Amino acid sequence: MLKNFHILIIGGDARYLEVINHLSNRGATVYVAGFDQLIFHQPNVHHAKLEKIDFDIIDAMLLPVSGTNSKGRIEATYAHDDIDLTKKMIAQTPTHCYICTGISNAFLDDATESANRKLVRLFARDDIAIYNSIPTAEGALMLAMEQTDVTIHGSQVMVLGFGRVGMTLARLFSTVGAHVRVCVRKAADIARISEMGLHPVLIKDLEQEIANTEVCINTIPHQIVDSKIISAMKKSSLIIDLASSPGGTDFTFADQQGIKNIHALGLPGKVAPKTAGNIIADIFTKVISE
After folding, report:
1. Given a cut of 90, is residue 54 above it in pLDDT?
2. 152-161: per-residue pLDDT in tens?
3. Domain segments of the chain as ranges
4. How many helices (DSSP H) and strands (DSSP E) are in the chain?
5. Which of 49, 89, 245, 276 is deepest in the core (most CB within 10 A)?
6. Residues 6 or more apart from 191 whose CB is under 8 A from it?
């Protein structure tokens, strides 16, 4: 239970509505900034303006998945205006206060370090990344089904990368009958891919191996689907890039070549906001309760 916790949630998308419900149901006093367009019926959920918040009672602060911009501005999906978080506000929190965000940047790193506050990058944690890989993979499958004119069963699918998301992608697409190849560098990954009954491809061989691919899904956060790789692809191919901005694909060149491409960011929040919100809520609760 979180009965004695005072938690400030600033901004956030549909996932954060589940987080608010989760925390309020566990007894926390929840202050929400950037949700002006919504009405909350729980008596322990309170609308708040940052300039009027008593920061010295806040035990934990939760920022959106995208964090802030370089000046501390926070996107507020459910308000008319975005919100400005300042370094002074963070410094006014008690010393035990957790500052939790999806991802961080120089502003948050500096603000929390200067105030000697604990900064938690939720999306850098293995547990949340693995849980989130499930709706991410399902979202990628949905896009592949929508954007191609053939069944995924029997299709030639190339997954680039075999990390937390890549492994789930490979497993899911294989389960629905795709012929899955996975492009990697490490010998250990090659062994695991083979053990799973899939076909490993070395990155150095990607240009040759990509030729008959119908769906290429990238998870590698640097440009790997470059002009050489795209030139070797069929015009009917589909590229789904899941890597954080700026992605791992030369999108401009793909457009020039007439190859359909999608930079599919934030899939968990788009295809399964309730599940994705519960994942964030569970891990956030674990962090602040430890």
Report:
1. yes
2. 999 999 999 9
3. 6-124, 128-269
4. 11, 14
5. 276
6. none
| Euclidean distance between CA atoms 155 and 15, whole angstroms | 32
Neighbours of 265 (CB within 10 A): 14
Tally of CA atoms within 13 A in the half-sphere of 128 that contains its CB: 23
The token pair that represents 124 in the structure block = 């850098």
128-269 matches 6-124 in CATH topology: yes
In terms of CATH architecture, what is 128-269? 3-Layer(aba) Sandwich (3.40)
Collapsed DSSP state (helix, strand, coil) of residue 47 = strand
DSSP 174: H
Architecture of the CATH domain 6-124: 3-Layer(aba) Sandwich (3.40)
Question: How many other β-carbons are positioned within 10 Å of the β-carbon of residue 86?
Answer: 14
Q: Which residue has the tokens 């501390």?
A: 72
Residues linked to residue 101 through DSSP beta bridges, in sequence order: 121
| Structure tokens, 75 | 């996107």
CA distance 176 to 179: 9
Q: What's the whole-number average pLDDT of the chain?
A: 96
| Helix 126-147 × helix 164-175 angle, to 10° | 40
Q: What is the pLDDT of residues 6-49, one digit of tens each?
A: 999 999 999 999 999 999 999 999 999 999 999 999 999 999 99
Instruction: Sort 167 into a burial class: Cβ within 10 Å, 0-12 / 13-18 / 19+.
Output: buried
Q: Phi then psi for 11, rounded to 5 degrees? A: 70, -170
Inter-CA distances, 205 with 83, 172, 174, 209, 235, Å: 47, 24, 21, 6, 20
